[in-house]
Amino acid sequence: MSKYKIAVLPGDGIGPEVTDAAVKVLDSLQERVKGLRLELIYGEAGFNCIEKYGTNLPEETIQILKETDACLKGPMTTPEEAGAPPSAAVTIRKMFNLYANIRPCKSLPGAPALKPNIDLIVLRENTEGLYFGEEFEVTPGYGVALRVITREASERIARLAFKLASNRKKHLTIVHKRNILRVTDGIFRDAFIKAAEDFPDVHVDEVHVDAMTMRLIKEPERFDVIAATNMFGDIISDEAAQVVGGLGLVAGANIGDNYGMFEPVHGSAPKYAGLNRVNPIAMIMASKMMMEYLGEEEAAELIEKAVIAVLREGKVRTYDLGGSSKTSEVGEAISKKISSID
Ligand code: NAD
């Protein structure tokens, strides 16, 4: 029997709706996969907690994260005023040292990808760079943000990038802006060049981040693993998500040595909150990545097959894919498919 404790943080905005759909899928997965038991432990986090607890990540929720095998996290609204609590996602990544953010983007049937044969991963260093969040107003009107890049973190993400690439199409693209950011991006880039010595079968190239945004649109099918620092990786992965059909489809794994958190790439899309309209597939694919992380390959494969089957049929699809189905209807269709698929 494979038993896991899973922290479920529905978040806010569209978070609870897409989380409900993903949980429905996990329920039917447990009926389908012999011996799979998931104990879901719900925790509060996100914008709505700030008034109640003075933080978007209450202590009780941190405790739940510490006691579970993995976390399925919905999107959360981050207030933008100076002094407001930092993003809950960023806090969790730092707290559990989830140094790798893996965001696969693949053309799927029935989704409006720019090309039919895109299959790439954006790998983002997840703990430093500009998202480190250290900003100061030195004197009024003169602000400074720290962009910390270390050799240690760069080498760690470089090794993972090469491992991923060597198990795929053996092509790794390093994204940086070393012509301008010579020190920080120099450290990042050099870590990859050093790691390349241990992976002679992987073809390596490097692209400046501005050129990368253009090439992702022009020739996305030519990429395999794209590795970048924290902020560049965040921006590129939103673009890559749109290139394969939109934010409603793409998920990300946040992985460290001892814990994993899985979430859609999209945010809380407040204008759609409570409307039961958005696409839950990104959140469902996050749960697929979580099953992979837990070593439950059969379960992960079933989720992906069910998503592809529902997309291919094209009968149940949300507005972003040209349909008018509800979030809950897509969740139900994928969940039903899991029970019936070969
Ligand atoms: P967003 O991703 O929430 O939404 C941008 C647009 O993308 C939406 O208006 C909608 O048109 C589309 N979209 C997003 N998710 C979709 C879905 N599932 N189905 C269909 N269409 C979808 O980005 P934003 O508006 O920049 O951010 C809103 C809030 O989310 C902000 O407070 C931001 O800080 C937060 N955010 C949180 C996370 C996270 O929790 N990890 C990530 C990104 C943004």
Q: Can you describe what's shown?
A:
The protein has 342 residues and is an alpha/beta fold. The chain has two domains: 197 residues, Isopropylmalate Dehydrogenase, CATH 3.40.718.10; 130 residues, Isopropylmalate Dehydrogenase (3-Layer(aba) Sandwich), CATH 3.40.718. Strands 2-1-3-12-11-4-5-10-8-9 form a ten-stranded mixed beta sheet, sandwiched between helices. The chain has a two-stranded antiparallel ribbon with strand order 6-7. Strand 1, helix 1 and strand 2 form a beta-alpha-beta unit. The mean pLDDT is 96. The chain binds nicotinamide-adenine-dinucleotide. The site of nicotinamide-adenine-dinucleotide has 18 residues, from loops. Nicotinamide-adenine-dinucleotide binds next to loops.
What's the structural blueprint in terms of helices and strands?
Elements: E1 2-9, H1 15-32, E2 36-42, H2 47-53, H3 59-66, E3 70-73, H4 88-95, E4 100-106, E5 119-125, E6 135-139, E7 142-145, H5 151-166, E8 171-176, H6 184-196, E9 203-208, H7 209-218, E10 225-228, H8 230-243, E11 251-255, E12 260-264, H9 281-293, H10 297-313, H11 327-340
Helix pairs in contact: 1-9, 1-11, 5-6, 7-8, 9-10, 10-11
Bound molecules: nicotinamide-adenine-dinucleotide (NAD).
